[in-house]
Amino acid sequence: MLRLSTKGQYGVRAMYEIARGYPETPITIKEISERQDVSVAYLEQILNRLRKAGLIRSIKGPGGGYILDKSPENISIASILNELEGPVALTSCLDPEGGCVRVDSCVTHLLWKALGEQVEAFLRTITLKNLITGDFLKVSKGQSVRAKPKSQSIKESKAMTLLKL
Amino acid sequence: MLRLSTKGQYGVRAMYEIARGYPETPITIKEISERQDVSVAYLEQILNRLRKAGLIRSIKGPGGGYILDKSPENISIASILNELEGPVALTSCLDPEGGCVRVDSCVTHLLWKALGEQVEAFLRTITLKNLITGDFLKVSKGQSVRAKPKSQSIKESKAMTLLKL
DNA sequence: GTAATACTTGACAGAAACAGTAGGGTATTA
DNA sequence: TAATACCCTACTGTTTCTGTCAAGTATTAC
């Protein structure tokens, strides 16, 4: 249950590749395509939306490509997925668009709401920088948090709290 | 993103109705259908799977219906959803069935894994009893946890920790 | 024993979402 | 002006979802 679409998955992986070139080296779609094994045409769709959302910038012509529009520590996984898949909405009830007819009588309404909020909170704490440095991976494996205390931003330490649950 | 299927949603709501009759009063599909506004035929499919999973028991003939096979505090939302939608698997990579070809090279693999585990942990802590007593709802609204200390099981207090994040 | 109640099972079908392709266009550089 | 590289829209096959339908089995009450 709760499958993430390929658009979201590829989007995060593409952003990871773009982030690696930050702040100077643009990466072409072709390169992302080869490294992440996703077709150029499909990536075009995905990156287009992320560009319109202001997460990345594009440079046309030879030597061009894509580059982050903010620093990696300021781009969360949540912001990427929100653009590509919309906000977390476990039920149509909770979709910002269509309203719920039976909010009050629905016992499960607050359950789904709470879960959705927790997921969003989690995704907001993980940034592209975490993906690049691998801090996140170490923490999720249960390694010592205090091994690299000075590199921990506030956001990162929040992510750790969540992961240690 | 991350929409829950109606099967899962209806399943939980149906289980809530069945739980209300525990341990003595069986409830018919027809009654659940009317209370939760879901067709009888669709509920039949759903309840069948929950019965085969051992969560509920059925009694045929007049006066029959469905009844829980365990006490409400021993049936978690996770166990219901797992039967109806399978385990949380944000990517096909993480599906217990199909294996991942590029586990090691995939930077995001552990991210989705960690998120999935967190969601499962959350759903395991919420039980049908929480739904019935409404304890869960109070907590999720940020009310004092210590207001009813004696009714708190270990599981419930875990859920609260999660909700307070 | 028979009629009414209620669960059991498998097949099927329309709708929606997903995943990806195709084919044209525009801007920039050398 | 040719090559590079991004830009945009439309479309289509596949899968999943969301149910319905129809026929069957078991139990109870009388």
What attributes characterize this protein structure?
homodimer, 165 residues, mainly alpha, 51% helix, 5% strand, disordered C terminus, DNA-binding
- What's the tally of helices of chain A? 8
Strands across the major sheet of chain A, in which order?
Answer: 1-2
DSSP, total strands of chain A? 2
Taken in chain order, the helices and strands of chain A follow as: HHHEEHHHHH
Morphology call of chain A = elongated
Structural class of chain A, by secondary structure, is mainly alpha
* Quaternary form: homodimer
**Proportion of beta-strand residues of chain A:** under 5%
Let me know the largest β-sheet of chain A: 2 strands, antiparallel
Give the % helix of chain A.
Answer: 40-55%
Q: Find the biggest chain interface.
A: A-B, 48 and 49 residues
Q: How large, in whole angstroms, is the Cα Rg of chain A?
A: 18 Å
Segments of chain A where pLDDT lies below 50 for 5+ residues? 139-165
- State the end-to-end distance of chain A: 21 Å
Mean pLDDT of chain A: 82
3D architecture notes:
Chain A is mainly alpha-helical and 165 residues long. Chain A contains 8 helices and 2 strands. Chain A has helices at residues 6-20, 29-36, 40-52, 77-85, 109-125, 128-133, 135-140, 154-163; strands spanning 56-59, 65-68. Chain A has a two-stranded antiparallel ribbon with strand order 1-2. In chain A, helix 1 (6-20) crosses helix 2 (29-36) and helix 1 packs across helix 3 (40-52). The longest helix of chain A is centred in the last third of the chain and has 17 residues, at 109-125. The first copy, chain A, is elongated and about 60 Å long. Chain A starts with 5 loop residues before the first helix and ends with a helix. The relative contact order of chain A is 0.13. Residues 139-165 of chain A have low confidence and may be disordered. At the A-B interface, helix 1, helix 4, helix 5, helix 7 and helix 8 of A face helix 1, helix 4, helix 5, helix 7 and helix 8 of B. The structure holds a DNA duplex (30 and 30 nucleotides).
